Amino acid sequence: MAPAFLLFLLLFPVSLASADEGPFIGVNLGTDLSDMPSPTQVVALLKAQNIRHVRLYDTDQAMLLALANSGIRVTVAVPNDQLLGIGQSNATAANWVARNIIAHVPATNITAIAVGSEVLTTLQNAAPVLVSAMNFIHSALVASNLDGRIKVSTPHSSSIIIDSFPPSQAFFNRTWDPVMVPLLKFLQSTGSYIMLNVYPYYDYMQSNGVIPLDYALFRPLPPNKEAVDSNTLLHYTNVFDAVVDAAYFSMSYLNFTNVPIVVTESGWPSKGDSSEPDATLENANTYNSNLIKHVLNNTGTPKHPGIAVSTYIYELYNEDLRPGSVSEKNWGLFDANGAPIYILHLTGAGMVLANDTTNQTFCVAKDGSDKKMLQAALDWACGPGKVDCSLLLQGQACYEPDNVVAHATYAFNAYYQKMVKAPGTCDFKGVATVTTTDPSHGSCIFPGSIGRNGTSVNGTILAPSSNSTSSGCPPKYFADVGSITSSVIVAFLLLMSVLL
């Protein structure tokens, strides 16, 4: 499967997922949204965030066409409901490859095919044909001379691992040895990798307090709190590494020691119901931020230090149509409009996603917002919100264009920057939204912008000092706003003062 905001991706020179690149961070693309963006909008978001790896759960033709010539590396999938047919017929597999792969490469950079998803734990009747399906798919790629560029594998739930701690004693559920042994032989012989879904959130939730939250979130632990494998004396500081090493040891138990691991799903939900108190924005931010740093810093695991594990974050969008608990709908990095759910705690060169390393996010008026609501929110920002709106006065740099949308955008962003982009400070009762596009124009440089001279404009400096007797607000923003009565404005401002 699911403050501050998001960033990722940078390649390091360690061979793992393929011969020509090092470990990476990618994203999963779920589509259970009531307002699903179009394929072109999805690709535009991926490109804007410099996300170079995406995993699809199918072979949606419109999405594959939209990804053409983008350079984005794509993992596609054989859905579980097609697995039986492909696993029982070489011809069916060949037709699937012709229609969904050959028709799109090389324009669409398909680099992997995930055959089914968590088949051994969710679709056990198809398990006997899983390896056949992988072989048939691979044979079709060989016939088209594509086997060198497209790997074939299948994602597994980490629950196929029994007794995952200590990792050195872990082994795959022996019920599946008749499948796992030929599957690993296939991966080894084709130069592919095992796909593993790793969810420390669920390990933590199901541990009944045995697993500390800090251990699940990659937070630093004192040495006496680290988990130690008594057989190897390896120290584990996080659940993610322990699960990955448990998979390595499980493969070793079956005499496979050279099959790499790619984590196809990992993340943390940003919202949950009363039974999931640790599904929060801050915990999701902490987990994903630390995971990204862990992968891209080339840390590796205690068993394989320096060999990082490429990982796909679950997931790009919050999926409001997913069934189940509240958390099921809230694993995303972005909402359907492309606004970040939170900004990751990341620093350092080369990071990308939702904001760059300079933390460039802005607050702007939301398209289609009611003009009266915008005006009331603008008045609040320039008044009780203590934003310096003097640049909006006639003759000043941000006066033009002289309309409520432009002026509200300036005031909203100034407040957002002044509040250090804290959660909830870019809402204004639903008429504002976060963007990574700098709204500065001409000589009007918005707070938070790098500006023309490369110097960041500090929103706090632009705000009036705490001992100032003037709000710095143009008189026009306390004028009559037409049909909005003063009582409505007062009520709105009181509400905003509570919310903000």
TrEMBL record:
- InterPro entries per record: GH (IPR017853), Glyco_hydro_17 (IPR000490), Glyco_hydro_17_plant (IPR044965), X8 (IPR012946)
What's one GO MF term for it? glucan endo-1,3-beta-D-glucosidase activity
Q: List the subcellular locations.
A: Cell membrane
Give the signal peptide as a residue range, or say none if absent.
1-19
User: What main location does UniProt list?
Assistant: membrane
EC identifiers of the protein = 3.2.1.39
Domain X8 stretches: 361-446
* Keyword field: Cell membrane, Disulfide bond, Glycoprotein, Glycosidase, GPI-anchor, Hydrolase, Lipoprotein, Membrane, Plant defense, Signal
List GO terms (cellular component aspect).
plasma membrane; plasmodesma; side of membrane
BP terms from Gene Ontology: carbohydrate metabolic process; defense response
Membrane topology according to the record: Lipid-anchor; GPI-anchor
Family affiliation: Belongs to the glycosyl hydrolase 17 family.
Alphabetized PANTHER family for the sequence = GLUCAN ENDO-1,3-BETA-GLUCOSIDASE BG1-RELATED-RELATED
This one is known as glucan endo-1,3-beta-D-glucosidase
What species is this protein from? Rhodamnia argentea
Gene behind this protein: LOC115740005
